[in-house]
Amino acid sequence: MRVVIAEDSVLLREGLVRLLADGGIETVEVVGDGPGLVRAVQEHRPDLALVDVRMPPSHTDEGLRAALEARKQRPGLPILVLSQYVEESYATELVGRGAAAVGYLLKERVADVAEFLAAVRRVAAGGTVIDPEVVVQLLSRRRRDDPLHMLTAREREVLALMAEGRSNAAVASRMTITEGAVEKHISGIFAKFGLEPATEDHRRVLAVLTYLRR
Asked: For residues 41 and 4, is the Cβ–Cβ distance under 8 A?
């Protein structure tokens, strides 16, 4: 796998390069600003772009904007965004632009190397990864009449794990329940969100987008 990193913190980006290398992932270029990211993606055509949300000059959303521009120029480019804090609007915009091959993680998740590398590979393979803390904040702030309020505690837990990109088997293992039970919870989520029968993966993504957009 070949990766481009866009991160203005020298310390963090060097750490990311080393972590990726230890996981057998090649970093083809490291840049410190948005224009550099767009150029590097065009030049190297990487398998994934690992991007900091806040970059120079204003340190607001330059990284996210550059990532979206890079994906516009190269449709389907897998993007994994890292953020210091939970910024729901950024997570919503990123996932809302295209549900496949995108991820949004807090930088603190990098400390769990195995989970971080798993997220990188999942996004590169076309999956979606949303930081659990983002899920928690989104779920906790919804109005009483929102479909999310209709979910049971178990369904919410399943939904949070789905947002992390977990398979039914992985959800079952994490929650210590059977895959059959997981399937029942997911069916309940689909029903309460009003998601009509379609391909399973498509509905899983729509379930995540439902609460990100509300």
From this structure: yes
Instruction: Record the tokens describing residue 187, joined without a space.
Output: 């069916």
Each residue's pLDDT tens digit, 129-187: 888 777 666 556 555 456 777 888 899 889 888 888 888 999 999 999 999 999 999 99
User: Would you state the pLDDT for residue 123?
Assistant: 94
Residue 80, C-beta contacts closer than 8 angstroms, at least 6 positions apart: 48, 49, 50, 51, 102, 103, 104, 105, 119, 120, 123, 129
- Domains of the chain from N-terminus onward: 2-130 (3.40.50.2300), 142-213 (1.10.10.10)
Contact by Cβ (8 Å): 39, 70: no
CB atoms within 10 A of CB 38: 22
**49 strand-pairing partners:** 4, 79
The pTM of this model reads 0.65
How far is it, in rounded angstroms, from Cα 187 to Cα 104?
25
Cα separation, 114 vs 108, in Å, equals: 13
